Amino acid sequence: MNECKQMTVWALAFTSDMQMIDTARNGNEGECTGEEGNCGCTHPEKNLISTMTIQDLERTETVLLTHSPCETCAFELYYNMKLQHVFYKEEYRKTDGIEFLQLKGIETRKVDWTKWPIEQERVTG
């Protein structure tokens, strides 16, 4: 998968006891155009969902994102997982995904990435 020229975004799925299930990043099989909002890359949430088994989707209660989800990705996360929490490091340029999840009763908030209890090398490296 080719990396996005705009930014690298990660999604990590966890069980209720915070065991990591899977990770994914944004990108595509073709060439990223680098155009904001229309670069042709797939968001990490969609890549995450597409690589997980049904059992893993059902075990996922927490998703950690480097950027808050867009509305489409928030919808996909909500309807494909048994979400309780979505935490993100940076806010995406649109906040409709945050609003959608909060309206559905999912705890959704910005967190201090440096205090998150996971191996950061696995995400950033």
Architecture overview:
- This protein is α/β, with parallel strands linked by helices.
- The chain has a single domain, classed as Cytidine Deaminase, domain 2 (3-Layer(aba) Sandwich).
- Helix content is 30%, strand content 22%.
- It has a five-stranded mixed sheet.
- Strand 1 (10-14) and strand 2 form a beta hairpin.
- Helix 3 (71-80) packs parallel to helix 4 (96-103).
Compact overview of the structure:
It contains five helices and five strands, in the order ββααβαβαβα. It is of the alpha/beta class.
Helical/strand content category: alpha/beta
User: How many structural domains does the protein architecture include?
Assistant: 1
Please give the count of helices.
5
Evaluate the radius of gyration: 14 Å
Q: How much strand content do the residues show?
A: 15-25%
Q: CATH H level: which superfamily? A: Cytidine Deaminase, domain 2
Biggest sheet, open or closed, and with what strands and sense? Answer: 5 strands, mixed
Query: What's the overall average pLDDT, rounded?
Result: 88
| Reported CATH architecture | 3-Layer(aba) Sandwich
CATH topology: Cytidine Deaminase, domain 2
CATH class: Alpha Beta
- The low-pLDDT segments are 119-125
Question: What fraction, in percent, of the residue positions are helical?
Answer: 25-40%
Reading side by side through the largest sheet, how are the strands ordered?
2-1-3-4-5
What is the overall silhouette?
Answer: globular
Q: How many individual β-strands?
A: 5
Distance between the termini: 16 Å
Secondary-structure element sequence? Answer: EEHHEHEHEH
